[in-house]
Design goal:
The protein is an alpha+beta fold. 31% of the residues lie in helices and 13% in strands. It has 8 helices and 7 strands, in the order ββαβββββααααααα. The termini are far apart. The chain binds iron/sulfur cluster (2 copies) and FE2/S2 (inorganic) cluster. The site of FE2/S2 (inorganic) cluster (FES) has 12 residues, from loops.
């Protein structure tokens, strides 16, 4: 099978280039990650991240024939030749398919992605009703792979100002949590022409999320809460 893979080694001083690989796949090589591991046996200078190979750690996100996704859960049977692999768009490339995620995580941390509750903790746990817990479905499952934020034009243009879909999904995950007491501070933190309102509901984020999450819906709910707060 033929692959065309983005190569860049800043230490070599050479410009980035695409490199072709012809690889004989074995029947067990069902996923793109299996194929990349086979390519690495052929050329051990190729660099990419991976860990769980189960769609859980989020580390092997890359641009696969034009669409962001996780190599470990992308079936080879669904790809056409040549398979064109590039690093996630919009982030600085460290080497080959490895990008610098600092800006992505900076935005994620900026929404305080943890429970804020200053009441003394109860003996066992902070309880929720099944309905209240239900509200968190579709929010807590994010694996921080960055497929969504790096598919978002608003994040490409303003990665330092726009929180991006992954960070905003996490912001809403805590806004929607009945155990959290910081809803107003969280909304204040996002009430800004860039941090939240740079989202123009183009929905690229929804299209690429490997966990089937819907950041656009969460962003819409935050916008709604901000509007309600002002009327
Ligand atoms: S819906 Fe908003 S966050 Fe999602 S890709 Fe479009 S602009 Fe970005
Ligand atoms: S919302 Fe989906 S695409 Fe975005 S970081 Fe989370 S898991 Fe990845
Ligand atoms: S290797 Fe962990 S998500 Fe793909």
């Amino acid at each position: 099978m033929r692959f065309s893979i983005y190569r860049y080694d800043p230490e070599s001083g050479a410009r980035p280039r695409m490199q072709d690989y012809d690889v004989k796949l074995e029947p067990a090589d069902r996923m793109l990650l299996d194929a990349l591991v086979r390519i690495k046996i052929q050329d051990d200078t190729l660099a990419f991240r991976r860990s769980c190979r189960e769609g859980v750690c989020g580390s092997d996100a890359m641009n696969i024939s034009g669409k962001n996704g996780l190599a470990c859960i992308t079936r080879m049977a669904d790809l056409r030749e040549p398979v064109v692999i590039r690093p996630l768009p919009g982030l600085p490339v460290i080497r080959d398919l490895i990008v610098d995620m600092s800006q992505f995580f900076k935005q994620y941390h900026s929404v305080k992605p943890y429970l804020i509750n200053n009441e003394p903790p109860p003996e066992k746990e902070r309880l929720q009703s099944p309905e209240q817990r239900e509200e968190l479905n579709g929010l807590y499952e994010c694996i921080l792979c960055a497929c969504c934020s790096t598919a978002c034009p608003s994040f490409w243009w303003n990665p330092d100002k726009f929180v991006g879909p992954a960070g905003l999904l996490q912001a809403y995950r805590f806004i929607a949590d009945t155990r959290d007491q910081a809803i107003n501070e969280r909304l204040d933190n996002l009430e800004d022409p860039y941090r939240l309102f740079r989202c123009h509901s183009i929905m690229n984020c929804v299209d690429v999320c490997p966990k089937g999450l819907n950041p656009t819906l969460a962003i819409g709910k935050i916008k709604e809460l901000l509007v309600k707060r002002t009327v």
